[in-house]
Design goal:
The complex is a heterodimer of chains A (475) and B (100).
Chain A lengths: L6 E12 L36 E2 H13 L3 E2 L5 E4 L9 E4 L6 E7 L5 E11 L3 E6 L7 E7 L6 E7 L6 H17 L12 E11 L8 E6 L2 H20 L7 E6 L4 E7 L9 E2 L10 H9 L5 H12 L4 H13 L2 H9 L4 H12 L11 H12 L5 H14 L3 H7 L7 H14 L1 H8 L5 H12 L6 H11 L1
Parallel strand pairs in A: 12-13
Antiparallel strand pairs in A: 1-10, 1-11, 3-6, 4-5, 4-15, 6-7, 7-10, 8-9, 11-12, 13-14
Helix pairs in contact in A: 2-3, 5-6, 6-8, 7-8, 7-9, 9-10, 12-14, 12-15, 14-15
Chain B lengths: L6 H10 L6 H18 L23 E2 L9 H6 L4 E2 L2 E5 L7
Antiparallel strand pairs in B: 2-3
Helix pairs in contact in B: 1-2
The chains are: A alpha+beta (475), B alpha+beta (100).
């Protein structure tokens, strides 16, 4: 979307990711989504007097892994109490990192090469989950709030970008790439709809090269689509206010996905004063070189590198193929395509089958070995299976496993003999003399017409390439 | 010397801490808190140029535990302490707006 009258968006994003640990940040309660309310709580995460937090080692390592993956400086860091009154935090403060975060000054490179700076990626604890009850079902209409503390104390890393993003598409690309990285390094499950990955967008507008305008922070962005829509709505809203001679108030705004608009949630009248002070119950983090090296050595290859590897096997890519590669890497299905490449098979075909058939049933991948995938693609490539038949075999393998050749046989996917095919083609040419004449006269589009007829006549058992060869030989 | 702490400072801090102070309390706490600050300012008379700031009496870093699940407490016991509960959750008066 382009903005009117030379306006430009300035966007910075704050991404909170829950860390994929077994336990919470400061206590041994389970870190799991979807349990019955208040079943994963203890005196520490309920903030009962006298309880003391103890740092989760794995959470520190995942935070460092995020720092490495985002090219940050990993530094000795401290913890603070952020004091505020809201029932999602029973202690009345959140333990967070303030002036000295564990990760600072990094960057993330988008697939198109655009680099977004990362100001910091710090550790903190998540809050409880509040449900607002009320007749209207909206926050402002609620008359009672219910609190579940299962999420209270779950480890989070907040990743703060610089104000470098200039379009809603870039914002979307940034979150998509960040999400892919977090999943790849095992730090997050990346589920925006479950709230394990949450995005707040700081949006302002300006005329090109003018100083930054006043920004508004948008909350409740639960999908990449919401993120993009909310940013576009907000930028246009601000432009309208400014062009009417008004001023933008610095405020927090709530995105309403159904109405497709943002509305004021909280006005920042005075600078927020959280009375930060050092958390006296925790000592500093100062990972030594050996610990840092161990975490760094444990990092897997990042999505950008994995995409690059698959793309290099394909040569010239269409946009659809580029999307397919991104899907495969996001879902961690690289091994299937790489397996076919190792077997010197058709990588382009492997890409299509992986991005469509396997990605459609990711849970079924435990039933589908790379070897069986390679074998199925080879059968299709050699013309022993038609495209439709190959898809059916893959579907069956994903559903319940087995041997591709045996499945093909059981389904009656024996290829037509060339004699049978020849007879069928001959009959169809006789029945459609006008089309055949036009094909003979050079109208290649008619090949598809005949392939369709052959497929229908043979119930999909013919091989498209074999039909074309038969047609050409009679032309 | 000037007052170490103004009445406005104390009023502001009280507001942040959600404390409602009477005029009399405001005067008294301004004086008491001021004395504490003056006492802490004694440190300024020491030459601490070569001493690193410290926030903790222990010289420890990296105190961590293994990522192992420990049993949580019985939800019935948890909610028994709550003034009000509904649907397995703590029930609190209506909250205006979202968390900071």
């Amino acid at each position: 979307m382009s903005l009117p009258n030379g306006w430009e968006m300035v966007i910075g994003l704050e991404v909170h990711t829950e860390l994929k640990t077994k336990t919470k940040l400061f206590c041994g309660c389970a870190n799991a989504f979807g349990s019955a309310p208040n079943t994963q709580v203890c005196p520490i995460c309920l903030g009962l007097p006298g309880s003391l937090p103890v740092m989760n080692e794995r959470a520190v390592e995942l935070a460092m892994a995020i720092g490495f993956a985002l090219n940050c400086t990993i530094q000795d860091s401290t913890f603070h109490r952020k004091n505020y009154f809201y029932p999602d935090m029973p202690k009345d403060y959140q333990i967070s990192q303030y002036d000295v975060p564990i990760n600072a000054h990094g960057y993330l490179t988008l697939p198109d090469g655009f680099r977004v700076s990362i100001e910091r990626a710090h550790m903190e604890e998540d809050t409880g989950k509040t449900t607002h009850l009320g007749t209207s079902g909206r926050i402002h209409g609620a008359d009672r709030s219910l609190v579940d503390y299962n999420r209270s104390g779950v480890p989070l890393v907040e990743i703060v970008s610089g104000p470098d993003i200039r379009t809603s598409q870039q914002a979307r690309d940034y979150v998509a790439e960040l999400r892919a990285i977090l999943i790849a390094i095992g730090a997050s499950d990346g589920r925006m709809e479950e709230g394990s990955l949450r995005v707040d967008a700081n949006v302002s507008v300006r005329k090109a090269d003018a100083p930054f305008g006043t920004r508004c922070e948008i909350k409740n962005l639960n999908s990449l689509r919401s993120l993009q829509r909310a940013i576009e709505y907000e930028a246009l809203r601000q432009i309208e206010v400014l062009e009417d001679g008004g001023k933008i108030r610095q405020e927090t705004r709530h995105w309403d996905e159904d109405r497709g608009e943002t509305s004021t949630l909280r006005v920042k009248e005075e600078a927020e004063d959280y009375r930060y002070f050092r958390e006296p119950d925790l000592v500093d983090l100062a990972p030594d070189q050996a610990w840092r090296d161990r975490v760094k050595a444990g990092l897997p290859r990042l999505p950008a590198e994995r995409r690059g590897l698959i793309e290099s096997l394909l040569g010239e890519l269409s946009d659809a193929q580029r999307d397919a590669v991104a899907t495969i890497v996001d879902q961690g299905l690289d091994e299937y395509v790489l397996g076919v490449a190792d077997a010197k098979g058709d990588v382009s075909l492997a890409l299509a089958r992986t991005a469509n058939e396997i990605a459609a049933n990711v849970a079924g991948r435990t039933n589908l070995s790379v070897a069986n995938f390679v074998a199925t693609v080879a059968m299709e490539q050699l013309g022993q299976l038609s495209a439709t038949q190959a898809k059916t075999v893959l579907g069956e393998l994903l559903e319940s496993g087995g041997d591709p050749a045996a499945i093909a046989k059981a389904k009656g996917f024996e290829q037509l003999s060339s004699d049978t095919l020849s007879v069928t083609v001959g009959e169809l040419i006789e029945a459609n003399p006008d089309e055949w004449q036009r094909f003979k006269d050079g109208d290649d589009k008619l090949a598809q017409f005949f392939i369709g007829l052959v497929m229908k006549a043979t119930k999909g058992q013919a091989n498209g390439k074999a039909v074309i060869a038969e047609l050409q030989s009679r032309r | 010397m000037t007052e170490p702490l103004s009445r406005e400072d104390v009023s502001h801090v009280a507001k942040l801490a959600r404390l409602r102070l009477t005029e009399e309390e405001l005067v008294r706490y301004t004086e008491q808190l001021g004395k504490i600050l003056v006492h802490a300012q004694d440190l300024n008379s020491l030459d601490l140029a070569g001493v690193a700031p410290t926030a903790h009496p222990f010289g420890l870093v990296n105190v961590v535990r293994q990522d192992e699940v420990h049993p949580s407490i019985d939800p019935a016991a948890v909610l028994a302490e709550a003034p009000d509960a509904e649907d397995g959750r703590f029930a609190v008066p209506r909250i205006v707006g979202e968390a900071p």
